[in-house]
Structures are given as structure tokens and as C-alpha cells.
Amino acid sequence: MGIEFLITSLIIVVSPGPGTLLTVAAGLSGGARAAAITALGCTLGIVPHLLAAITGLAALLGASATAFEVVRYAGAAYLIYMGWATWRSPAALAVPADAPPRTAGARIGEAVLVNLLNPKLSLFFLTFLPQFIAPGEPQPAWRMAQLSLVFMGMTFAVFALYGAFAARFRQQVLERPSVQDWLRRGFAAAFVGLGVKLGLMQR
What we know:
By secondary structure, the chain is mainly α. It has one domain (3-89, 105-198). It is built from 10 helices and no strands.
């Protein structure tokens, strides 16, 4: 497990997205426990995308060098696009203070649906994972499964921390949109940097 994969995954996981916002909203409205339950649901919603990506990539990685180059450039373009989209999107977050309590099942179901219906997850894993599979890997599918499980574990941990932070510092988060804006632009720059790096990478 390379340190580069762990660092890159952490940068991507901590970057804002639908799952992040949903978990933060759960923390703001229902507390740390609600946030952890929502984080679990978001993590479970990744599984179908991972299975689809691993199945397709196992054959793709055994194909020609041209196929790998296509995936590499697609990955670079996608990360740069994510950076642009993150830079352009607003950093507003509004959650009602008097939101009614919800069951754990309802929170998990909503979180799974959010990620299950997010087509960008499939594209993300199709363009991200190949960058960390060594040439000549005898079992690329198994290796991708290992990397995916690590990514999912990081996703759950980071999302749960986001939600716990939101629950603990509710007023500070909601009353300082400038902090959200600063973080959003930092994430955008990180995405662009990763995209450029992948575009210049040699297998």
C-alpha cells in the first residue's frame, strides 16, 4: 500500500461532495451519532460502483498500452474538471435547527441512495484506481479490491469526523461561511494539481 495512494485518497475523501454535505447536515441536525450512521450509509452506497469498476478494470488493465493511456488521460481530465467544479460551486450550507428526529434506517437508506445514484462515483473509480496498479500485477482485480476497501474505510472515518465536528461546533460552522469558502478553494487547487500529475505520469 503506497503512501502516495493513501495521501491522494485522503485528499479526495476530505474534499466536499454530496455525501460530505449529507453527513455534515446529519451532524448539525442530529448530532455525532446521526452523522456516524449517515457516514456508514454513504460508505455502503459506494459498493455497487466499486464492483462495477473492478469488474471492468480487470479486463481493461490487461489490454493494450493505448487503453491505459486513454484511462490515464480521462482520469487527469476528470480530476481537473472536479477542481474547476469545486472552485465554481458555492459553499453555502443551511440546515434547520428544529429538524425532526429520524430513525437509523431512514438515515442509512437516504445516504445509500445519495451515493448509489451518483454516476460520478463510477467514473471516479474507473479513472482513479488504475493509477495505483503496478505494471504486470498478477491479480489486478484483487489488488483493486484491496485499494477500494482502504478507500471505503477512509471515507467512513473522514465523513464521521466531519459530522462529529459539525455537531460539536454547530454555530462556528454555520456563522463562518468565509472558512468554508477558503477550504473549497484549497480542495479545488488540490484536484487540479492531482490531475496535472496524473497527466504527466509515466507507467
